[in-house]
Design brief:
Helix content is 38%, strand content 20%. It has eight helices and twelve strands. It has two domains: 119 residues, Response regulator (Rossmann fold); 96 residues, Winged helix-like DNA-binding domain superfamily/Winged helix DNA-binding domain (Arc Repressor Mutant, subunit A), CATH 1.10.10.10. A hairpin with a 2-residue loop joins strand 8 and strand 9. Keywords: DNA-binding, Phosphoprotein, Transcription, Transcription regulation, Two-component regulatory system.
Length: 244
C-alpha cells in the first residue's frame, strides 16, 4: 500500500473516456476516493459538491478550457491541489498553467508511475502545510498561522524563520513520529542540509528552550532515538503511533 494521506479525494477531469477509466481504476487501487468529470462545467459542479484534495485537470476540454477551470477553482480556494494534464509541451503553455495556479504540470503521454510520483509529492506538500486557521490551540502553546505568531502561556515568543517552520511542520502532524529525513526534506528542500548534519538538532534544542516548560525534560517535542521527533499534544497518547 502506497503511503498516501488517508482518504485523500481526487477529481479527474478528462474528456477521453478511456483515459478517464484507466486513471480512475489506477487511483482507486492506490487507495484514493475518486470522482470524475468529462468537461469543465461538470468539473466545477463536482468540485463544489465534492471538495477534493487534488484535481487532475486536462487542459483540452470540449466546453471550458482547463486554464479557465483552474482560474475559477482558484477564486474559491488555494488549498485544493491542481495537476494539469496536457499534450501542450511548449514552455509558454507551462508558464500559463502555473500562472493560473496549478501546482504541477505533466505532458501526455505519460507513464502512470510518473503521475503517481507527482501526486504523492503535491499531496505531501499540501498535507505538510498547516491550514491557515485563526489559531491552533495546543494548550499552553497557541499558533497563529496567518500572522506566523506563537504564544506560550499567553505571551508571544520570538522564533526564527526555521524555528517557526519547524513548529508549524510538527503542528501539521500532531502525535506522529517524523523521521529526520522527512523533516530535512520539508524544511531544506534544496538539500543544503544533509541527513547527517546536526543543524536540525540545534534548531530542535533552540525551539525547546522557547516553548517547553522544562527543555531538559520535554513535554511537547519528543525524541525518538535513531528515528526522529514527535510533537506530543496529548500526554496520554503513547500507543498506536505512526511515522513519516
Amino acid at each position: 500500500m502506497t503511503n498516501w494521506p488517508s482518504g485523500a479525494k481526487i477529481l479527474v477531469v478528462e474528456d477521453d473516456k478511456d483515459i478517464l477509466t484507466v486513471l480512475k481504476d489506477q487511483l482507486e487501487l492506490d487507495g484514493f476516493d475518486v470522482k470524475t468529470a468529462l468537461n469543465g462545467k461538470a468539473a466545477l459542479e463536482v468540485f463544489i459538491q465534492y471538495n477534493p484534495d487534488l484535481i487532475l485537470l486536462d487542459l483540452n476540454l470540449p466546453d471550458i478550457d482547463g486554464l479557465r477551470v483552474c482560474q475559477k477553482i482558484r477564486t474559491h480556494t488555494q488549498e485544493t491541489a491542481v495537476i494539469m494534464l496536457t499534450a501542450r509541451d511548449r514552455l509558454c503553455d507551462k508558464v500559463r498553467g502555473f500562472e493560473t495556479g496549478c501546482d504541477d504540470y505533466i505532458v501526455k503521454p505519460f507513464e502512470y508511475l510518473e503521475l503517481q510520483a507527482r501526486i504523492k509529492a503535491v499531496l505531501r506538500r499540501k498535507s505538510s502545510t498547516v491550514a491557515k486557521r485563526d489559531v491552533m490551540d495546543f494548550g499552553t502553546i497557541k499558533i497563529f498561522p496567518q500572522r506566523r505568531e506563537v504564544k506560550v502561556q499567553g505571551s508571544p515568543i520570538k522564533l526564527t524563520k526555521k524555528e517557526y517552520d519547524l513548529l508549524e511542520l510538527f503542528a501539521a502532524h500532531p502525535n506522529k513520529v517524523l523521521k529526520r529525513e522527512f523533516i530535512i526534506s520539508e524544511l531544506w528542500p534544496n538539500k543544503e542540509l544533509y541527513s547527517w548534519s546536526r543543524a536540525l538538532d540545534v534548531h530542535i534544542l533552540r525551539l525547546r528552550h522557547k516553548i517547553e516548560p522544562d527543555p531538559e525534560c520535554p513535554r511537547y517535542i519528543i525524541t525518538h532515538p535513531g528515528v526522529g521527533y514527535r510533537f506530543r499534544t496529548d500526554e496520554s497518547q503513547e500507543e498506536g503511533l505512526s511515522s513519516t
